Amino acid sequence: MAEPLRKPIQSMEPVRQQPMQEPRKTEDIARRVAVRPKYRLYPFEKFLYSAMIGGIVLFGSMTISAHNEAYNVSRDLAKENQVTQEMKKENERLQLEVTNLSSPERIYKIAKEQGLDMRKGNIKVIPK
Questions:
Q1: In whole angstroms, what is the distance from residue 64 CA to residue 72 CA?
Q2: CB-side exposure of 62: number of CA atoms within 13 Å?
Q3: Structure pTM?
């Protein structure tokens, strides 16, 4: 036959309670807990730790200062390079303008407008 859907009820014995323990005395607890003495820093240790922390802070600030100075120098160098490039472009433009203004054709044209005539005997070429 088929098994029943319900499980059989176990015996109805009363639950046994464990006997209550008496609270421990504070003397027993105090004896078992080891009291650790507080660790005191000696004056030399205080000085040593303070010096180490101060050294770390000083080293960090010097490192940051050096990086900041390197960044400032790099920025100034970039600005100077930019100014140099602009000056080179300006010099090239001015050199081209000088070449155009000192061309012989332009000088002859201005001389004719001023009423000067060109004769072979009165022209002298002066080397630079």
A1: 12
A2: 6
A3: 0.47
Q: Residue 38 corresponds to which tokens in the numbers above?
A: 């507080």
The answer to whether 106 and 100 are in contact (CB under 8 A) is yes
Closest C-alpha to 108, from 96, 121, 118, 122: 118
Residue 122 CA: distances (Å) to CA of 101, 117, 126: 22, 9, 13
Residue 100: half-sphere exposure toward Cβ, Cα within 13 Å: 6
CA distances from 96 to 12, 100, 106, 113 (A): 118, 6, 14, 24
The rounded distance, in Å, linking the Cα atoms of 77 and 125 is 46
6-45 pLDDT, tens digit each: 655 555 555 566 656 655 556 555 566 666 677 788 899 9
Distance (Å, whole) CA 41 – CA 54: 18
